[in-house]
Design goal:
Domain AMP-binding enzyme C-terminal: 411-485
GO molecular function: ligase activity
Keywords: Ligase
Helix content: 25-40%
Strand order of the largest sheet: 2-1-10-9-11-12-13-14
Structural class: alpha/beta
Largest sheet: 8 strands, mixed
InterPro entries: AMP-bd_C, AMP-bd_C_sf, AMP-binding_CS, AMP-dep_synth/lig_dom, ANL_N_sf, ATP-dep_AMP-bd_enzyme
CATH class of the largest domain: Alpha Beta
Shape: globular
Domain AMP-dependent synthetase/ligase: 17-360
Distance between the termini: 52 Å
CATH topology of the largest domain: Rossmann fold
Length: 495
């Protein structure tokens, strides 16, 4: 396939020349300017001895310098670990434990930024590698020469971490070959839905962190389609969309609900808006119809996973509730593993160009999800006669909060350690602020009455605030299925 990622991006920026590709904090950065930033950070990383296969942790925002750092880490062939906001300190340290260098533009994140010296006497350096300020790397000279891409096809390009609801976030490993095969930078391979979206990414609003898989990949698509990345901080909708004249952005289901309500109450001028990409959790058909009435035909509903990248995408013209026609290999299987015909529900198995190959350091878990080239999604759905995908449920016991997946089991086990709790069960409930939230059903210990505040503090301290229950129901005993297992469908019906 030729040169590995990010070689195609370097070529794209080189060809774009003086075209604006970034707007950040009142300044415009051209493609050639961004390429210069990438060259300098690449030079800085190599000067610090970063080689192919080395772990590089990134604690970065979304400015052009942060983008350049992500690309430069891939140019040198590193195993890139992005750290998103919201993780507990133990989780963050776990993510960074296997990295040789950490690059940050956020000193307030709790890391000690060095001047680039390799201080072997520092205990944090010995445990977690050197922490380098992005500004120090940018001080490297720019030789004006296209960076040499050191990435090798089968090296791990990045570890994309899941929510961390188990206390230890799972890291999905993706190779450079997989990143190179992805279609974001290859217009000749764009499926129809991606092509329709790409035409609307003239001014793509980015926010939060480029550690976000979704934000980075839509950003690459925007650049490949001739668009500009425009940063927003904070990303308050609709104000940020209006202020930056954004034509597109990523949005969670909960934030979409709030935007629609705000537009009904106090309409803002969103005449420039052409695409809102919803991902991470299901969007109810009624909510989608309401959004279309208020915002117009701008909602694209994507379906994908950390393990697979994008699987399918519904465009504004698709029937509400469907996820469009998957442009990847997808089969629906019954409980015995046999493929079922259209219209029949089953578990979804997929193959995508950019899928991961397993979980870093977890062979048993990898074997459960990755096999024979297929990825087991653990989602239930069906294909209709036209080939459209419809999701119908989950085989996983999870709660999706702000587009992040959290497993119920670890939350239940932690709640059960509280002295006032004899048994604990967790279900997902709809939430206008976060999409879904944790509802805890608890059998109290003899003579005790657990309080929601105490349980929230316990969970937040160990697993993070997103896992903390927002609602608590005390029960005498848990209902059981005919097989004798806890019947969470009955519990969910009580919410």
């Amino acid at each position: 396939m030729g040169e590995q990622f990010p070689g195609g991006l370097l070529d794209l920026l080189d060809a774009a020349g003086d075209r604006p590709v970034f707007e950040h904090a009142g300044r415009v950065v051209t493609a050639s300017g961004l390429l210069g930033l990438i060259r300098r950070v690449t030079s800085g990383l190599r000067r610090h001895g970063v080689r192919p296969g080395d772990g590089v942790g990134l604690l970065l925002g979304v400015g052009p310098e942060a983008f350049a750092a992500v690309v430069a880490a891939h140019v040198v062939g590193a195993r890139v670990v992005g750290v998103r906001p919201g993780l507990t300190e133990p989780q963050r340290r776990l993510l960074l434990a296997d990295t040789r260098v950490q690059v940050t533009d956020v000193p307030a994140a709790g890391v000690s930024v060095t001047d680039g010296r390799d201080d072997g006497d520092d205990p944090d350096t010995r445990r977690h590698g050197r922490v380098l300020a992005l500004s120090e790397l940018l001080a490297a000279p720019d030789d004006g020469v296209r960076p040499r891409v050191s990435a090798r096809p089968h090296d791990v390009a990045r570890l994309i971490h899941t929510s961390g609801s188990t206390g230890a976030p799972k890291a999905c490993a993706q190779t450079y070959a997989a990143m190179t095969a992805a279609w974001a930078l290859r217009p000749d391979l764009w499926p129809p839905a991606v092509r329709e979206l790409a035409a609307r990414l003239d001014r793509f609003l980015v926010f939060g962190t480029l550690a976000s898989q979704v934000m980075m990949e839509y950003g690459l698509l925007a650049l490949a389609s001739g668009g500009t990345l425009v940063t927003a901080d904070p990303p308050v909708f609709p104000d940020a969309l209006v202020r930056h004249r954004a034509t597109a952005s990523v949005i969670t289901v909960a934030r979409l609900h709030r935007l629609v309500a705000r537009q009904r109450a106090r309409p803002a001028d969103l005449g420039a808006l052409r695409a809102l990409m919803v991902s991470g959790s299901p969007l109810e058909p009624g909510r989608l119809r309401e959004a279309a009435e208020v915002l117009g035909p701008v909602v694209f509903h994507g379906y994908g996973q950390t393990e697979t990248g994008m699987i399918s995408m519904a465009v504004p013209g698709d029937p509400p509730g469907s996820l469009g026609v998957p442009p990847v290999d997808l089969v629906v299987r019954d409980a015995s593993g046999r493929t079922v015909p259209p219209g029949v529900e089953g578990e979804l198995f997929v193959r995508t160009p950019s899928q991961g190959f397993g979980y870093w350091g977890e062979p048993d878990l990898s074997a459960e999800v990755f096999g024979d080239g297929w990825v087991r999604t653990r989602d239930l759905g069906r294909l209709d006669a036209e080939g459209r995908l419809w999701l119908t449920g989950r085989t996983r016991d999870v709660v999706i909060v702000n587009a992040n997946v959290y497993y119920a089991g670890p939350i239940e086990r932690l709640l059960a350690t509280h002295p006032a709790v004899a048994e604990a069960y967790v279900v997902a409930v709809p939430d206008d602020d976060t999409g879904e939230a944790v509802h805890a059903f608890v059998v109290p210990a003899a003579g005790r009455v657990p309080e929601l505040g105490e349980l929230r503090e316990l969970v937040a301290a160990h697993l993070g605030g997103a896992c903390a229950p927002t609602r608590l129901t005390l029960i005498d005993e848990v209902p059981l299925t005919p097989a004798g297992k806890p019947d969470k469908r009955q519990l969910a019906a009580r919410t």
